[in-house]
């Protein structure tokens, strides 16, 4: 049996939500609402996922995160 930590589980949920629309930019607050994961946790995880190369970030008023397509 594989045991995952709570943050790993939340990260998997976020990635799955983003995979439903991989070309679209997703805002952290929007992902928080869709997944019922607290907004500060979503922001923390998205930063870690970006550092790990799993997601790309775009800054600005219409920015957000999308899955890395490499």
Overview of this protein structure:
The protein has 70 residues and is mainly alpha-helical. It has three helices and two strands; from the N terminus they run H-H-H-E-E. Strands 1-2 form a two-stranded antiparallel ribbon. The model has no long low-confidence stretch (mean pLDDT 93).
Short description:
The chain is mainly α and 70 residues long.
Keywords:
single chain; 70 residues; mainly alpha; two-stranded antiparallel sheet; 11% strand
Question: What's the structural blueprint in terms of helices and strands?
Answer:
Elements: H1 6-19, H2 28-35, H3 39-51, E1 55-58, E2 64-67
Antiparallel strand pairs: 1-2
Helix pairs in contact: 1-2, 1-3, 2-3
**Helix share bin:** 40-55%
Q: Indicate the radius of gyration in whole angstroms.
A: 12 Å
Count of beta strands? 2
Terminal CA distance reads 30 Å
Largest sheet: 2 strands, antiparallel
**Order of helix and strand elements from N to C terminus:** HHHEE
What coarse outline follows from CA principal-axis ratios? globular
Quickly count the helices.
3
> How big a fraction of the residues is strand?
5-15%
Quickly give the structural class: mainly alpha
What is the topology, as strand order, of the major beta sheet?
Answer: 1-2
Question: What do the pLDDT scores average to?
Answer: 93
């Amino acid at each position: 049996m594989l045991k995952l930590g709570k943050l790993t589980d939340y990260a998997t949920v976020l990635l799955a939500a983003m995979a439903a629309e991989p070309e679209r930019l997703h805002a952290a607050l929007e992902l928080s609402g869709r997944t019922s994961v607290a907004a500060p946790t979503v922001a923390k995880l998205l930063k870690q996922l970006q550092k790990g190369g799993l997601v790309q970030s775009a800054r600005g008023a219409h920015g957000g995160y999308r899955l890395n397509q490499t």
